[in-house]
Amino acid sequence: MSVALVAGAADRRILDERGGSRAMTWIMAIMLFLTVLAAATGLGMVNAAAALDRQLAGRLTVQVVDADQTKRDRDTAAVMAALAQMPAVKRATPVDRTRLTDLLRPWLGDASSDADVPLPSLIDVDMSVPSEESAARVAAGVRAVAPGARVDAQSRWLSPVADFMRTMIAAAVALVLLMAAATSAAVLLAVRAGLETHRDTIAILHILGSTDVQVARLFQRRIALDTMVGGAIGTVAAMIATWAITRQMASMGSELLGGAVLGQRDWLLLAALPIVFALVATVAARVAVLRRLRLVQ
User: CA spacing 20 to 30 A to 177: which of 29, 120, 152, 249?
Assistant: First the structure.
């Protein structure tokens, strides 16, 4: 099947439809603008999810909870000494009370800084070899010296965030597929309108010996040109908007938002979308024209 993506001067003269062509171009520009934004959102969520996995892989939090501060401090020291002897532990860092107070202030208010409030001792643990077996050994070692201590994987705390990211990725993929389907539907409507508008021209072409495939080629070239021009406009506009958003996200200093910044491969994938949509529109136009002409005959 021959698929040409550039309409020649003869094609434009035969299918003279300047108003319709402009409308189709802007429709494709809007389609690609929304599609690129959705794809950029999906790619950003994929990058953020990967960054989150890297940050949380092999990270544990040890909580030493006891109302007696003396006993709590003694258990904390024992846990720190035990962690220092474990080969699976790369680093163990106690969380400063001031930082813990700041974290609890949204829930406890000024009471979080009250010395009489028994705050737990928190220890951030980085594993040298992230695995469930290593985490289980560390938890067993901690409870051996401090039976009341709690050991939690940080990934468990942020599992709702990970679920949200997966939902956003699925929604972005679904939206891109829906936009591709909408593009095909718009092409079908444009082809049907073009066939009705140029019915006499097509009849003359058939009388002159043109085949259905040659007539279909005229329409597919026009649709491909409109899709490429409109797609380029929409893609450039969407990429500029995406660049502005990602630049602002990177300046916030958040590790999670910074992980959503697009890389070179992501930008190349976004730039390829108008070409993919032009191919989809061209094939849809060819199939629609050939089917319509066979039904008419």
Answer: 249
Nearest-angstrom CA–CA distance, 84 and 78: 10
β strands within the chain, DSSP E: 59-64, 89-94, 121-127, 150-153
Q: What is the pLDDT of residues 169-214, one digit of tens each?
A: 899 999 999 988 888 888 888 777 777 776 767 777 767 777 777 7
Q: What pLDDT, in 10s, does the model give residues 107-163?
A: 566 655 555 566 778 888 887 777 677 778 888 888 888 887 888 776 666 667 778
Please report, for the chain, the start and end positions of each structural domain, with discontinuous segments joined by +. 9-54+160-296, 66-148
Give the C-alpha distances (Å, rounded to integers) separating 187 from 70, 150, 283, 294.
Answer: 75, 60, 10, 18
Looking at residue 148, the DSSP 8-state letter turns out to be T
Mapped onto helix, strand or coil, the DSSP state of residue 16 is: coil
> Looking at residue 258, what DSSP letter applies?
H
- Which amino acid is present at 224? A
CA 94 – CA 230 distance, rounded (Å): 57
Q: How far apart are the C-alpha atoms of 56 and 153, rounded to whole Å?
A: 8
Is the Cβ–Cβ distance between 260 and 168 less than 8 Å?
Answer: no
Residue 42 contacts residue 273 (beta carbons within 8 Å): no
Residue 268: exposure state from Cβ atoms within 10 A (0-12, 13-18, ≥19): exposed
Whole-angstrom CA distances from 110 to 97, 107, 118 are 14, 9, 14
* Strand, helix or coil for residue 261: coil
Number of H helices, E strands in the chain: 11, 4
Cα dihedral across residues 56, 58, 59, 63: positive or negative: positive
